[in-house]
């Protein structure tokens, strides 16, 4: 493609011309039976060019889903093995489409953002890298698909929302429950929207516990890994590894169990289920939490003043229970499991007219059974899906690509996700400090606790600051 043609296409997308009256969206977004796979009869000029930042295990799902709808030109990872595997997978996908295209490989994400031909980026890095890369990508004129949880702190979420508003970039967060999983969660939110359980009184959210590693010894950094850059904004520490395969480590998948890089299950699965719980509350204009009380917590290491006292093992909470109170005296219990209520993972909504439970495998309860005789209106899903219809396959990525072309916020926008992550981060602050925190949603400040307010942000290592 010539540079002139590419610039014309980018301008077309920027102006949102496809949103004009009478212009049809691509067939793979149109209607409930559409399949969001390889678009038919689409020219290369119509396809978005993708840069993939982070090509580890989770990218194994995100990357191929994006490649169904666009073409990857460059991959980036600080682990050379991951980068090479990503390159090969992308080039193989290009060949299968009948489009021979070399895919470049870089270690530094800034080289992806510098490329004028890149329309969108997928960010599938450890959590502590999400905000910095996403903010710089938006400022570089890229639309963004970023895996959850989007932020490490509440302050990062405020910065992302600010830049998204200023730049007008389209940004989809990878909370796929809003689009996929057999539309079980969409149906759950639609039930609330349609008043099928009356006014919400209580919600139980079970998100699973985290593992305990025991001591992990210092180990030699793998030759293919740029450990210093992997650490990014986090403190410079020794690489640790124990076991075989992925094993126990500070790196790759296991970063989830270190507060230096993530928030444990509270942000890993909370980003999914707490998001759905608050989406349900949003149907009744409830607003965010007003207080969060730690009922129970177990850490794999002793804590002092909110900080782990040992640095050689996982440190995120293994078991926990936080009671969050919302306006109208609505109680939301966030726990590792709710087995006494009949489920170990999922969300139980209780209202004045009934209750139901939803997770990735089922949607059950009286209001669900009543759908046989009183089904949801035909447009119930569209009403909560911002007037759009989820594609029957690859729906979350398809929604992102559709919104890039329409220049509108996708179903998992940064603003709703920031609000969900605010609850997750506040819950972790309450657990780590072992005290109730009171929250003012309007000012985005913890009330009457200066020490707790300091936890809304954190100092980044020099050279890796997250700035808006």
TrEMBL record:
Classification via Pfam families: GFO_IDH_MocA, GFO_IDH_MocA_C2
Domain Gfo/Idh/MocA-like oxidoreductase N-terminal: 70-174
Signal peptide from the UniProt entry: none
Family matches, as PROSITE patterns: TAT
InterPro entries from the UniProt entry: Gfo/Idh/MocA-like_OxRdtase_N (IPR000683), Gfo/Idh/MocA_oxidrdct_glycsds (IPR050463), Gfo/Idh/MocA_OxRdtase_bact_C (IPR043906), NAD(P)-bd_dom_sf (IPR036291), TAT_signal (IPR006311)
GO molecular function, one term: nucleotide binding
PANTHER family hit by this protein: BCDNA.GH03377, OXIDOREDUCTASE FAMILY PROTEIN
Protein name per its UniProtKB record: Probable NADH-dependent dehydrogenase
Organism expressing this protein natively: Blastopirellula marina DSM 3645
